């Protein structure tokens, strides 16, 4: 099992229980697909159906992708963030989500390369900061990941190229190698900021917590639109995983 597979298995097992239907859109990045470098492509190779079943499905999609993809740099995050934001945009206000179908998204990025499109990624993160979205970046290997910490704006505010400030911090950076032998610590680090980010989004949008009675019986409502969502009880991650080695 390589570092990617270890990270997919470990972090996927942490995030999977928060998703109701256990179906995940999975995207690759940093790959040569049909002779063209692509920084956001479905690992199912079917744009109309990017989802797979559970962590096992992610692992299978990752392994099978090497039949069709030649790994290629540079490491670029902006297209992935843009794709995740486009999905979350559909559910960006309570009125759009409807009663009983609140959704919040988590984009899981697994990478072994130093980011090369920092400013474009910051621009996308600032735009996405008003959406129901959190991003967990899991770094594997021994590359210089210093820049990743800059995206995890703890105590700071990201500012884009137009001098627009992020509405909130939506990124958590996890250096996988530091915690790979300590599952409890890995789980803690992976989920460390998501609850606060979720509450900040709800506060920003004026969304009030539902009572236990209001929450009862709503699990069947979370699978609408394109089946990519989360109720306030369930979380979905997208795990781009076919990155350069």
UniProtKB/TrEMBL annotation:
One of the GO BP terms on file: cellular response to calcium ion
Cellular component aspect of the GO annotation: plasma membrane
Pfam families: Copine (PF07002)
InterPro entries the record matches: Copine, Copine_C, vWFA_dom_sf
SUPFAM superfamilies: vWA-like
Region (Disordered): 223-245
Molecular function, one GO term: calcium-dependent phospholipid binding
Protein name: Copine C-terminal domain-containing protein
């Amino acid at each position: 099992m390589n570092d990617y597979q270890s990270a997919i298995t470990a972090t996927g097992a942490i995030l999977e229980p928060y998703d109701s239907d256990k179906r995940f859109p999975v995207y690759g990045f940093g790959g040569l697909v049909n002779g063209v470098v692509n920084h956001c492509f479905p690992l199912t190779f079917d744009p109309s159906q990017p989802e797979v079943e559970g962590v096992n499905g992610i692992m299978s999609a990752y392994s099978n992708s090497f039949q069709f993809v030649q790994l290629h740099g540079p490491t670029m995050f902006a297209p992935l963030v843009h794709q995740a934001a486009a999905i979350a945009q559909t559910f960006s206000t309570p009125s759009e989500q409807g009663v009983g179908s609140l959704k919040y998204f988590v984009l899981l990025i697994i990478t072994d390369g130093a980011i090369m499109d920092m400013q474009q990624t910051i621009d996308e993160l600032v735009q996405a900061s008003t959406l129901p979205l959190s991003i967990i970046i899991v770094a594997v290997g021994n590359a210089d990941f210093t820049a990743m910490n800059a995206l995890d704006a703890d105590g700071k505010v990201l500012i884009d190229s137009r001098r627009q400030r992020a509405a909130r911090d939506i990124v958590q950076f996890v250096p996988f190698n530091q915690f790979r032998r300590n599952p409890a610590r890995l789980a803690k680090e992976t989920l460390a900021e998501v609850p606060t980010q979720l509450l900040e989004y709800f506060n920003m949008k004026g969304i009030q917590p539902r009572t236990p009675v209001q929450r009862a019986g709503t699990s069947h409502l979370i699978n609408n639109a394109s089946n990519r969502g989360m109720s306030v009880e369930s979380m979905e991650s997208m795990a781009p995983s076919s990155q350069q080695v």
